[in-house]
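User: I'm curious whether this sequence folds into something compact or stays loose and floppy. Could you predict its structure so I can see for myself?
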Amino acid sequence: MARLFRLKPVVWGLGIAFGAQAAYADDLSLGSTCLNCNPAELSAAAASAPTVETSGEAALPTDYTRITADEVGGQSKVSVRAEGNVIIERNSQVLNAQWVDYNQQTETVTAGDSFVLYDNGSVVTGGKLEYKLSDSTGSGENLRLETEHEGRRLQAVSAQGQLQGKNRYHLQDTKFNTCQRGDASWYIQADSIEADYEQGVGVAKNAKLVFGGVPVLYTPWADFPLNGNRKSGLLVPTVGLGSDGLELDLPYYLNLAPNYDATITPGVIGSRGARIGGQFRYLQPKYAGQVEGTWMPDDRKSEHNNRYQFKLNHNQQFTSKLSGGIDYNRVSDNDYYRDFYGQDDIAANVNLNRQVWLNYNDTLWGGALNGHFTVQKYQTLANIYGYKDEPYAILPRLQGTWNKNIGNAQVDLFGQFTRFDHDSKQSGNRAVFYPSVRWNLHNEWGFISPKLGVHYTFYDLDDFENNPGRSVSRTLPIFNIDAGMTFERQTRLFGHDFVQTLEPRLFYNYIPTKSQNDLPNFDSSENSFSYEQLFRENLYSGNDRINSANSLTAALQTRYLDDKTGAERLRAGIGQKYYFTTDNVLLDGSVSRYQRNRSDWIAFGQGQISESVSAHAIVHYNQNLRRWENLDTGLLYNPEPGKALSVRYKYGRNEPIYLQDDGNYYYDKLKQIDIGAQWPITRQLSAVARFNYDLDVKKPLEQLVGLEYRSGCGCWSASVVGQRYVNSLNSYKNGVFFNLQLKDLSNIGNNPSEKLRLVVPGYSPTHEVMKK
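Assistant: Here's the prediction. I'll summarize afterward.
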């Protein structure tokens, strides 16, 4: 090994030495434990950080060592004593110290009375250091470590520590956090930690979380990722408070392999009892999925015991053309979602899906061929009155589509066979065949697209109660023409330049009238009335009901596009359907002949009124009966992330209000006002609220209020949110969400961010908001 020695001017060396000594005068504190961090104090702390001095000489060859100092003495090839502003450089390492003893035979240095060691982005400072340059190992006293990898920072102070190689450290009697220098608003205090940045792993023993100078959590052992990657170990507990009392979960994460992991979560619900949950995830080039479940053996608050939930989701690519999957969901009882989930989950999980499917994609005769096979059944959960309406099981369904473009024409073939099965309704087979051809004629200013098809449906129905099995079919020709034009002009709005479009559109639709009350209804329902519905040939979903039509839709839409970027800022439209006949096929299959010559009309508008204000409105008016059917309008003021005020009004003339004892919904007028807000109270503190009030029944449907705090230095944030909502006609549920987020480390509690995104328009998580 080559060693290079340089002498430096004494005056410069003394200046640096005194400066370094001032910087090293450290009581091994991470900084202020004050929760109200002042960024100006951090700037001062950053300015006082020790700097690493280099010799300024040319770069050395690999594994060469250079020592520069005010005084150098010793025996060549044995040992060297360097004093006064010592600088040792080797590969990526730079060591500064007041004095150094260098053993040339073992490549070991002893440095004091203070030192600064820089190595590949990490800076270690302290009192005395024993260090081997060749393999970056050694030990020191009164150490301070500051390092940053992949945008994640770690700082620690330690009474003693071992440097165990490149980016590997063992620290004893230590404190560490992921904040900026000088910020000790929170830290982990441990007997020891081991940090390995090559593996991205940290392990702490006898550790406690100190928050604002007060210990709040303790664990005898914990490990954590240093680079954001997955790592086996205890996760931060999840704590909640609600109608069932305190909820506590202690998840343990198992990083089994790069493509497998699992989580085991024991927990307890105060008024109910203990439970345990688990999740297993897997990922392979050809397949992926997850299995998860929760089990509560004894629920003290319920008549049900052995309560459980099980979910399986699997997706697989068998070949380049064939894929498939499984989706299976099950719970132990009808009350499971009502007892353990919020109102959104309850509404979305009435029918739990159980499905196996295969998809096939190929080309045939120059066209695209798609095949689909599925078997599907549901677990339907009864409501609080014991009523449930279980959908038909599909045992099985085989479906195929083929389409090809021939000139300006697109030929489509659709075929489907389904076996519908039900325990308490008539079962049967249904075959559907629907060939059609659409011509697409267009240029830069307009289009016209006629379509002609024939919809054929055949039923083979089983015996049901006293009705014998039978076969029945339906054949309906379908013809429609869709046409539109686009005009553009330059304009100014709200002081900005825009391109405004004017887009008139006509849609003629013809389907002959045919009574369908002799046909079963396996899967059809009426689509909600909307602007898009004006241009659909069938008012119903599924294939059991096809409306009659001899109508013309007339609509007009306008858009405002940013003149520079082309981004859409505003969109508005209005449309109405005119009927040439009054025939109408109802959902029960009968033909109604009530007098009408035009449909309800619908209008909408949405977009940015200014940089800070956006609005939307949807209006549905029944012109025959001369009454409003639905109205939904809202205004949002969102000048910057973290500031949002919204108000929304919703009216429905005939909406489901609540579920009655017989299992049917009570329908009545719905008039609600919904107010949401997120607004800063101070630089760090923000309030969030939502108030949903029914103007007819004169009572709130949901109330939510919370506070969110973000440290002035950005190293932690906390939120507490209380919620109360109606879950049946005369009962409420309560919930409290608390969350403490430690920067680049973990969350403690239930994070309410996703809930707030749904109910407060324009909401931004506080920890993501950069305060000025």
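Summary: Helices lie at 10-24, 39-47, 336-340, 343-348, 753-759. The CA atoms of residues 367 and 404 lie 4 Å apart.
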